[in-house]
Amino acid sequence: MDLLIFDLDGTLVDSKLDLAQAVNATRGHMGLTPLPNDTVYTYVGNGAPVLLRRAMGPEMPQSEVDRALAYFLAYYAAHKLDYTVLYPGVREALDQYKNAGRRMAVLTNKPFKISQAILDGLDVGTYFFRVYGGNSFEQKKPDPIGIQRLMEEAGIPAARTLMIGDSAVDIRTARNAGVPCAGVTWGFQPDSLTADPPDVLIDDIADLTKYILSTRP
Predict the structure, then answer these.
(1) Is 83 exposed, middle or buried (0-12, 13-18, 19+ CB in 10 A)?
(2) What are the Cα distances from residue 120, in Å, to 117, 131, 214?
(3) What mean pLDDT is predicted for residues 156-166?
(4) What is the three-class DSSP state of 122?
(5) What pLDDT digit, counting tens, does each position of 176-187 carry?
(6) Helix-strand-coil percent breakdown of the chain, rounded to 5?
(7) pLDDT one-digit tens code per residue, 43-70
(8) Is 7 one of the annotated active-site residues of the chain?
(9) DSSP track, 201-215
(10) Against a cut of 0.85, is the pTM above it?
(11) Among residues 2, 7, 9, 120, which one is catalytic?
């Protein structure tokens, strides 16, 4: 596998608490009571507009959801690294992939600027030749455009590309692009990998490294 495309939240970084606190700060701003953190985590993965639509509830008018989204993005931008950390072993794994000559990119539904700032703030931004966010294209994951663009830029075909993510959204993106995929169970939505099973299910990042560095097309 010569091109490794990583999801961000739930795959490389544990950002759960910062996201939940930003959502509940937004609910407070909109005159609503807080949601349990575990409930917020189930809303993550399809981008900030979907997250806020779910978090605000179906009864809220879209104009108010849009106002909530603007507040959320500003709040989260200021608090994106309060508690967010790399998952254990991620930095060491990225070093191994880099030293083995693998090209790496991030494809997330989180807005690009915040995504890049998180990676840079955690001192791993330079590992990735490209970071694409939920606002990089007109379509978000599971649309395959991000993977397709990354393969074109890297000059690496689908058979030698691997999508790595923690949710069904990532698996569907890989399927839509015709590339192999690995699902990691340490993220936000491991249960979603049952309905949309990946090619390989990974419980520990050391096992991901063994798979990446030993797999042939």
Answers:
(1) middle
(2) 5, 11, 29
(3) 97
(4) coil
(5) 999 999 999 999
(6) 50, 15, 40
(7) 988 889 999 999 999 999 999 999 999 9
(8) yes
(9) EESSHHHHHHHHHH-
(10) yes
(11) 7
